[in-house]
Protein 1
Amino acid sequence: LDSICDCNAGSDLDIDFSGGMKADCIFKAGSFGDVFALVSTGEAMEAASNGARPTLPGIFERRNRTSLNVRLKGKKELKSKKARAPQGSCSGHLDIAMDAAVQFDPRVTIDVNVMGKTTVEVSGTVRVSVDAL
């Protein structure tokens, strides 16, 4: 299980010869657990076209999964990364900087008793870290 499931995050395999088997897996393989991040660059926001809203300033990144006991991202100084909102997006002047990261950790639990009854449960944890100015 170690190549697919994160044992440090709580994945487990329990075999009880009189009761059955239970496998609990928090996935660390595949792109489900990847971290998706917005990183401020300080570049000016571009005005939206065709009535669309302007996008947040910065670049989007896809990073490797981090274990549940590790921070998603470190704190950054954002003052130098502020970007001016495009003309007409608000009544005053708006400068914004944002660093954010989000990760979904899917969990699958399979329980099989000695009679063959199988129960499958799918759940997950969503972690988000945001710094904004």
Protein 2
Amino acid sequence: QSPRAGLGANNEAKMFLAYHESIRILWQSNTIKQVWAKRSAINVYDSHKEYLNDIPRIASPDYKPTAKDVIIARVKTTQVAMEKYQIEGTEFEVYDVGGQRSERRKWIDCFENVTAVIFVAAISEYDQTLHEARRSNRMVESL
């Protein structure tokens, strides 16, 4: 089980189910559409729109996340997280080190016996600023 799941996640799910119809109605309002158009000012993830457009499916009692639901999900990395995989007999260790400036000092411990580095940058953040430094562009900083 993921360390990110648990009672907190269950409580959030219960709250969502209690208010999903109100959220759906708000999402369809003109006011929220206007706010959404300015989302880059407050660094709202683009993937939220996918979930908000699918509230009835997600709130259904038989909801099972699709591959797309999982791929576009975003959980802020607050520490170095490691996952192990075995693909065709080869073991892989993948480290998610987080991109926030405050997390970068933790990276050095992950570079012993490294074979490859995959660097991921969100080009959708071209018009957003860093949370910790409002004058720095998020995409430029990540590159």
Protein 3
Amino acid sequence: SGAVFSASGATSSGASASASSSSGGGSTSAPGSLTRAVGGLHKEYVAGGGDASLARLQDRISNAYLSMMGHLERRHEQRGGAPLPKGSSEEEKINALAPRSAGQSQLCDSAHTLRRWYNACRHERGQWSVGARPSDKEVARVIERIRGLLDLERRA
């Protein structure tokens, strides 16, 4: 049934989506070295005048989005769904994996909201001003809605 993610980007097992048990597909680096490297870059970003709260929000959105898509893709495969066409956009993937026509309109709408924020994190990173970005509470609310819908479906 796969792990369920929370607003912090952590899975239900408590492991962060960004700090997986493997440090890179068979890499021989010591456990935690990736986490330390990313943390070092983050410290340099903040020391150089970067907005730490914005960076954390964007990281959480990215972790939640990638976790959600992984869950939707795994669910699709487990149900025997046909492979998605190569080159499908993220929007097309969500429409295929959580179709409104299958009674999943709330999941689809929330997934698209998270996708838009994820795209903004990737493409407008430095342009997300405090007034233009979603609040932590708004992001948490959308993520918890997705989590609840996926959990409800799993119990059915």
Protein 4
Amino acid sequence: PGRQRLPRRLSLSLSCRYDGALKACGARCRSVDGEAGPGDVLRMMVRAGEHCVALKYVHKFGQAAAFPPAQLVRASLQGDLSVRTAAMLLKYVPLFELSDAFPREAILERAAASGILVHELAGGKLVLKGRRRSDSASLPPGAAVPVKVGSAPN
């Protein structure tokens, strides 16, 4: 009671890729699947701990009043960052004008501390590269990942 139950096709989408159901919706859609609105799905994403993906759709659907971006960014910065999370933070922090509270340099430092290599290209664009799962699976947490020099296969 009081809890909205989403249809199976939407809940499968949320459990697999949380953002799949919202990706197909336009910015002004009222319903994701005929029953649940974007706000309902965003609420589920936040409860499931998908703060950074929620940040993306808070911007798309103009839901900043209901889902404060600063809280979503703060929650996204907890623990190790993935390449996807770091890239989304670097994109959406300036869009929400949160650069004073969350400076780009601090996000880049957190990304590096999480094992993400950051390369700056001409024009200020960034390329983020994470470690391979096979490389990191055998290492203890926090250990440096060995990097091969050169990009050509042997």
